[in-house]
Amino acid sequence: MLKLKKLVKTYATGDQALKSIELEVPEGQVLALIGPSGAGKSTLIRCINRLVEPTSGEVWLGDTELTKLNSSGLRRARREMGMIFQEYALVERLTVMENVLSGRLGYVGFWRSLTRRFPQSDVDEAFRLLDRVGLLAMADKRADELSGGQRQRVGICRALIQNPKLLLVDEPTASLDPKTSRQIMRLICELCAERGLAAIINIHDVALAQMFVQRVVGLRFGAVEFDGPPEALVPDVLTTIYGEEDWEATIKKDDEEVAQ
Ligand SMILES: Nc1ncnc2c1ncn2[C@@H]1O[C@H](COP(=O)(O)OP(=O)(O)OP(=O)(O)O)[C@@H](O)[C@H]1O
């Protein structure tokens, strides 16, 4: 469904953030992207929807080569890729409902978006999504009245109301406490399963990634160092991705898989 071919990103500073990445993500697969700081995880996610322009190589979403699209083609293609951010990127003075509906701005016409008059079907879907993530009662609250976990749930609804094929998720739990982090990861993975949605989740917490995803890709110095199931992330493998460290405390223990 998503295919990256020889994807390279060299920043103007000369930093080679991605070195010829080859990656395929089938429909419905949730993949965690791990690796040390500076490995290129954010760059990879942002090159897919061209928030960062790749230097060379190809990005394919289904039959569309995203790297070939002009700006209007890209605008259309971006509807198919929902993005969830670490810092939520909500509009603080708008309500929860308005923030969720802003996910539809790529679909509604210019005048409608200017006056924020969304079709009833969009409003109905926003209510359904808010109900699904447990925020129905918050629909009229301002975004700046919410906790971090609640904000991220709004961010998830905003991405899903686009009806995307792929979710690009950039450190969704980095600003959250451990329990809320688990809840958010679980929610993202459940929603992907319910909707047959593929996702790439850039995440620092290896144990959290191992708990929820089917596939882990480890980046190091802009190259894929590991690609496999979470249980294959043994200490030696972590050392090749991150360098020398005592990994026993990091790797998921079976009895840690709490179903809360
Ligand atoms: N806008 C930029 N201009 C120049 N260099 C950049 C830019 N953004 C990232 N880089 C460089 O590209 C490399 C990869 O950065 P990137 O942010 O993608 O890594 P990351 O794995 O997401 O790191 P982190 O986990 O710390 O967020 C780093 O060497 C970084 O310094």
Automatic annotation (TrEMBL):
<keyword id="KW-1003">Cell membrane</keyword>
<dbReference type="InterPro" id="IPR003593">
    <property type="entry name" value="AAA+_ATPase"/>
</dbReference>
<keyword id="KW-0547">Nucleotide-binding</keyword>
<keyword id="KW-0813">Transport</keyword>
<dbReference type="Pfam" id="PF00005">
    <property type="entry name" value="ABC_tran"/>
</dbReference>
<dbReference type="InterPro" id="IPR003439">
    <property type="entry name" value="ABC_transporter-like_ATP-bd"/>
</dbReference>
<dbReference type="GO" id="GO:0016020">
    <property type="term" value="C:membrane"/>
</dbReference>
<dbReference type="InterPro" id="IPR050086">
    <property type="entry name" value="MetN_ABC_transporter-like"/>
</dbReference>
<keyword id="KW-1278">Translocase</keyword>
<dbReference type="InterPro" id="IPR027417">
    <property type="entry name" value="P-loop_NTPase"/>
</dbReference>
<feature type="domain" description="ABC transporter">
    <location>
        <begin position="2"/>
        <end position="246"/>
    </location>
</feature>
<protein>
    <submittedName>
        <fullName>Phosphonate transport system ATP-binding protein</fullName>
    </submittedName>
</protein>
<dbReference type="GO" id="GO:0005524">
    <property type="term" value="F:ATP binding"/>
</dbReference>
<keyword id="KW-0997">Cell inner membrane</keyword>
<dbReference type="GO" id="GO:0015416">
    <property type="term" value="F:ABC-type phosphonate transporter activity"/>
</dbReference>
<dbReference type="InterPro" id="IPR012693">
    <property type="entry name" value="ABC_transpr_PhnC"/>
</dbReference>
<keyword id="KW-0067">ATP-binding</keyword>
<keyword id="KW-0472">Membrane</keyword>
<dbReference type="GO" id="GO:0016887">
    <property type="term" value="F:ATP hydrolysis activity"/>
</dbReference>
<dbReference type="InterPro" id="IPR017871">
    <property type="entry name" value="ABC_transporter-like_CS"/>
</dbReference>
